[in-house]
Design brief:
- The complex is a heterodimer.
- By secondary structure, chain A is an all-alpha fold.
- Chain A contains two helices and no strands.
- Chain A is rod-shaped.
- Chain B has 24 helices and no strands.
- In chain B, helix 16 runs antiparallel to helix 17.
- Chain B is mainly alpha-helical.
- The chains are: A mainly alpha, B mainly alpha.
- The interface between A and B is medium-sized, with 26 and 40 residues.
């Protein structure tokens, strides 16, 4: 998928918004990782 | 629906979020152990999914950064510095021609006065020899080869220059300087006076050379003497306005973080505040009102740039106005001083002849060491006397020149008169500590640029010989153009902050009059920062 991706149809403002959303999503993904070890300690 | 919402990556984000948010991590069924096992397996499975997606989105991030690098190459304005340098060199050529054709003396035009001025008590031996070399070279340019004959001003200048001409690379000048210094501690002063004497001696040749130079340079540029200043001002205005609107330079101001991008965006609080400084509510103005406002603020900005410089040169006007009341008495005292000078110069020649006679040079001469020594002592005293007379003569010169002014003379006329005496200009800049960080030549050059600037209307329109208040004149003018400009806001204490506001407005206006807009600059700014943040990962995919 990544290799074929193209941004041609996006203008500069949309490309920047897309970048912001990707960064926001990476942060979301990172924040959703659960550490089983941490959970055990909390118990 | 937003176009971006349909974009595959955004759709993936939504799918991702939905999957993660609804992922079942707990079960109510089974024993505690089974529930824990279910949770552990679910967490592992969801973490694996997140990690896989994380890698994918980090790749998207790099792909977007790469796209930004490609777009930046396309949308970043071109640097036209080389093109401007050509135009600026033409402006400089015209500027040199303005100086060459204005009312300054020929020795000032040929920079001979600067060379002479560089010799003072603090001048080192090397600097002295370099100054003499520059002086000789300048005369070569005029087609006059100065020889020892020209330096027989005193017995000491002759001795020094005899050695100078024999020691081309000045290797042995230390010894000769020390040996002369013993009999003549003022040797540097005497050489300086000798150079002044040479300039006076060749006055006619210098004048002919300058006339020819002016004619040839005017012909080369296809101009005439009366249009040089207007040509220069037009050319300076044109390139100044082009550079102010240059897309590359204006974008660079933001990229280099010299100014804050966010402050310049539409509807930013700083933008609203700055635009409302000179009117009550900029946004409520109609198209016509906004156009008028923009025009007037641009004019005010250019005027205040000159007013700020005027403040730094105001001490020259103050000095000239003090002298103005003595201009009538200067008419006779100036002429008398010249007579005194001529008399003492004749006396110097007489002392020199006495010296030659005591050296046994000439018919009926006999060597006499005592008379020789006396002539040397007399010469030292005579040169000090001549130097003092020259100082007084030059000091009277500027006061005498004020007689050329009529009663309606403007501040501009007064600045122009100041140029008629190099001595006066030299004294003004070398005794004012505000100008001590630059050399005399640079200070005088900047002064010329100020006098011949394209935005000096207030200097031309203000009568200098009646009581005037420059801040009142300027603020009244702009009040008529519907700007809120108080005298206080443009006085010496507040002009800097008013200019900061105008510089802000002016930049936005220049951008709006160019081929780029603030949104594109903002995009370039953001893309540059994003691309720079992860430069090592760029182009790896």
């Amino acid at each position: 998928m990544e290799k074929n991706i193209t941004f041609e149809n996006l203008d500069d403002n949309e490309l920047l918004t897309l970048y912001d959303k990707v960064i926001e999503h990476i942060q979301y993904l990172n924040s959703n990782i659960i550490s089983l070890e941490e959970e055990k300690k909390d118990e | 629906m937003n176009k971006l919402d349909e974009y595959p990556i955004i759709k993936e984000i939504n799918v991702n979020k939905n999957h993660i948010d609804n992922f079942i991590l707990e079960t109510k069924e089974g024993t505690k152990r089974l529930k824990e096992k279910f949770h552990r397996n679910a967490v592992i499975e969801r973490n694996n999914y997140i990690n896989k997606e994380n890698i994918k989105f980090k790749n998207y991030k790099v792909l977007i950064q790469n796209e930004m690098v490609t777009r930046l190459k396309r949308i970043m304005p071109i640097d036209k510095t080389n093109q401007y340098n050509k135009e600026l060199s033409n402006v400089n050529k015209l500027f040199e021609l303005v100086k060459l054709t204005c009312n300054i003396s020929n020795s000032f035009k040929l920079k001979l006065d600067f060379i002479i001025s560089s010799i003072n008590d603090e001048t080192s031996l090397d600097e002295l020899n370099m100054a003499i070399k520059k002086f000789l070279d300048k005369f070569k340019e005029i087609n006059i080869r100065l020889s020892l004959e020209d330096f027989k001003y005193t017995m000491f200048t002759e001795e020094y220059m005899d050695s100078y001409f024999k020691n081309f690379k000045f290797n042995n000048m230390n010894d000769i300087f020390e040996s002369i210094y013993f009999n003549c501690p003022d040797i540097k002063l005497q050489l300086k006076m000798n150079l002044i004497n040479i300039v006076n001696k060749y006055k006619k040749n210098i004048s002919e050379y300058v006339d020819k130079k002016i004619t040839s340079e005017l012909n080369e540029l296809n101009l005439n003497k009366n249009t040089v200043i207007s040509e220069y001002i037009n050319a300076r205005n044109k390139i100044g306005s082009t550079i102010a609107k240059d897309e590359y330079y204006n974008t660079k101001k933001f990229l280099d973080d010299k100014i804050k991008m966010n402050d310049y965006l539409e509807n930013s609080p700083a933008r609203i505040k700055n635009f409302n400084t000179f009117t009550s509510d900029y946004n409520s103005l109609d198209e016509y009102g906004k156009a008028n406002y923009n025009n007037s603020t641009m004019g005010l900005y250019l005027t205040l740039n000159e007013l700020k410089k005027y403040y730094s040169y105001e001490f020259i006007i103050t000095d000239l106005l003090k002298r103005y009341k003595d201009k009538d008495s200067a008419k006779t005292s100036f002429v008398n001083k010249k007579k005194d000078l001529d008399k003492e110069e004749k006396n110097r020649v007489k002392i020199y002849k006495e010296y030659l006679k005591a050296c046994g040079i000439g018919i009926f001469s006999r060597k006499d060491e005592v008379k020789k020594k006396n002539a040397m002592l007399k010469m030292n005293e005579e040169i000090k006397k001549i130097k003092k007379l020259y100082d007084e003569y030059y000091d009277l010169e500027i006061t005498f020149n004020l007689n050329k002014l009529n009663e309606s003379a403007s501040i501009y006329d007064l600045f122009m008169i100041s140029l008629s005496s190099f001595y006066f200009i030299e004294k003004m800049f070398t005794t004012n500590e505000n100008f001590s960080d630059k050399d005399l030549y640079s200070n005088v050059d900047n002064y010329f640029k100020f006098i011949f600037n394209p935005n000096n209307d207030f200097l031309i329109d203000t009568n200098a010989l009646v009581e005037y208040n420059i801040t009142d004149i300027i603020s009244e003018k702009y009040k008529l153009l519907n700007l809120i400009v108080t005298e206080e806001s443009i006085n010496k204490d507040n002009i800097d902050s008013t200019m900061d506001t105008l510089r802000y407005i002016n930049l936005i206006q220049n951008i709006e009059h160019s081929n780029i807009n603030i949104n594109t600059i903002n995009n370039i700014y953001r893309m540059t920062k994003i691309a720079a943040e992860n430069r090592e990962n760029l182009d790896i995919l």
